Amino acid sequence: MTGPKIILDCDPGHDDAVAILLAARHCEILAITTVSGNAPLHMTTANALLMCQIAGLDVPVHAGADRPLLVPAAHAPRAHGHSGLDGPPRPEVHRTVNGNDAVGCIIETIRTHDDVWLVPVGPLTNVALAMRQAPDIVERLAGISLMGGAIGPGNVTPTAEFNIWADPHAAQIVFASGAPLMRMAGLNLTHQLCVGPDVIASLRASGGTVPEFVAGLFDFYLAGYRERADLDAAPLHDPCAVLAVTLPALFEFGARHVEVETAGELTRGMTVADERPGTDADPNCEIAYRIDADAAMELIVDAVCSYD
Containing H/E element for 303? Predict the structure, then answer.
């Protein structure tokens, strides 16, 4: 597979599962690393292995951090169920991990390959630990494209998005790392890319096993948004971070300086972007503000339907 070389750091998660399928069609995935987030580590790892298994992907999977740096572990069963991939019947997972040291995998992969993109779409614990253990990897990166944060309302609190809130101290390490290029797909962006009944019908019409499985995932995922928010469409967060690497022309970005609130009683995990006109704060992040949602969804559906 040609395309950007990436490490996909994830916590599957319905949208992570689609990000894996999309990335495998548009990137060279050097490794998938897993982290505690949407579900506990043993489940997010099993879910990554399951997606590789059903899609026939020959990609190494390494399990990583089972808890955040300082705060207690938290999960998202309301959105993703207790398994992280609730919905369709779950095949037995036969694939096994290639290792249990995701941090070491990240460090070694970046040191041995040029121009690697880190694409973290879960809490940033593994990435922060790797940067702390091996600071030299930061300057070797092509960039970091993450799903997390929000310029505006959060989802787990009024001010914070789940991935950043789940490990705010790790997130602040990553935003302050001095990475050559950082792109952020926050809730303000990802809520522009939504899956609804029409997308689910398109997947089922393809007749493949993988599209049918994803359609079942979306049935569960969309039902939750209908129940909680009375919405007939659900944001597809994590594929945005993949597309920001493979097709950045789909997006409108703005360069900003971003810090993460780690201690605020009401604002823990808030991504604070300096949007003041004429600010002298040096930008450390390209925030994605808009996406061509129709073109992006077409790419996602085509990618999922390309599997048997």
Answer: helix 293-305
Percent of the chain residues topping a pLDDT of 70: 100
| DSSP bridge pairs for 285 | 256
Instruction: Quote the pLDDT of residue 231.
Output: 85
Number of neighbouring beta carbons within 10 Å of residue 263: 8
Q: Give, in order, the Cα–Cα distances in Å from 125 to each of 45, 116, 246.
A: 15, 19, 24
Look up the pTM and report it.
0.97
Hey, what amino acid is at 134? Answer: A
Cβ contact 13:86 at 8 Å: no
pLDDT in tens, 197-208: 999 999 999 999
Q: Determine phi and psi for 271, rounding to 5 degrees.
A: -90, 110
Q: How many CA atoms lie within 13 A of 174 on its CB side?
A: 35
195 contacts 294 by C-beta, under 8 angstroms: no
Residues ≥6 apart with Cβ < 8 Å to 218: 14, 87, 195, 199, 200, 203, 234
CB atoms within 10 A of CB 279: 11
Q: Would you give the DSSP letter of residue 41? A: H
Angstrom CA distances, 234 to 142, 165, 194, 199, 240, stand at 31, 20, 5, 11, 14
Residues 6+ apart with CB under 8 A from 235: 15, 187, 190, 191, 192, 193, 194
Written as one letter, the residue type at 279 is: T
Catalytic center residues: 11
How does residue 1 score in pLDDT terms, banded at 50, 70 and 90?
Answer: low
User: Two tokens at 253?
Assistant: 């970005």
